[in-house]
């Protein structure tokens, strides 16, 4: 099966929709998916990728060692070694297909600081008494 490296551009942003949940290998038995090479538990993280004014929802498989501390919904992350694998299968006579995404790890990204809005300047009308006092002093 083709494994296609995905370019993660500096201008792209990735925000989690879910924290890591164990990936289910077999829904009938509830068996958890494990990495074939390392034996690590695999997790699924839903991520919104925003690039060039578009947004895509990706379900990314992450090994347990690749989940950062503090991963929660709504945090910014950066995928490391993002791979796309196209797949297709026939089940009960119907074709299903899609793209599976996997990363070596996710890194937490510090969101850019947003400046607090500056309140508008307030002008206080000058009273006639203070204007007269200023003219008298001059």
Tag the structure with descriptive keywords.
single chain, 138 residues, mainly beta, two-stranded antiparallel ribbon, 1 helix, 7% helix, 43% strand
What features would you describe in this structure?
This protein has 138 residues and is mainly beta. The protein has one helix and eleven strands. The strands form two sheets. Strands 1, 2, 3, 6, 7, 8, 9, 10 and 11 form a nine-stranded mixed β-sheet that branches. The radius of gyration is 27 Å and the shape is globular. The chain starts with a strand and ends with a helix. The model has no long low-confidence stretch (mean pLDDT 86).
Structural class: mainly beta
Mean pLDDT: 86
Please give the oligomerization state of what you see. single chain
Tell me about the biggest sheet?
9 strands, mixed
């Amino acid at each position: 099966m083709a494994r296609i490296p995905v370019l993660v551009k500096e201008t792209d942003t990735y925000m989690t929709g879910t924290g890591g949940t164990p990936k289910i290998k077999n829904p009938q038995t509830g068996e958890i998916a494990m990495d074939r090479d390392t034996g690590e538990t695999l997790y699924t993280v839903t991520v919104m990728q925003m690039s060039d004014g578009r947004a895509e929802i990706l379900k990314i498989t992450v090994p347990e060692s690749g989940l950062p501390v503090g991963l929660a919904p709504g945090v910014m992350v950066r995928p490391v070694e993002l791979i796309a694998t196209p797949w297709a299968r026939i089940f009960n006579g119907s074709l299903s297909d899609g793209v599976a995404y996997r990363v070596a790890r996710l890194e937490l990204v510090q969101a850019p600081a947003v400046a607090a809005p500056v309140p508008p300047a307030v002008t206080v009308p000058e009273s006639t008494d203070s204007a007269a006092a200023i003219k008298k002093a001059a």
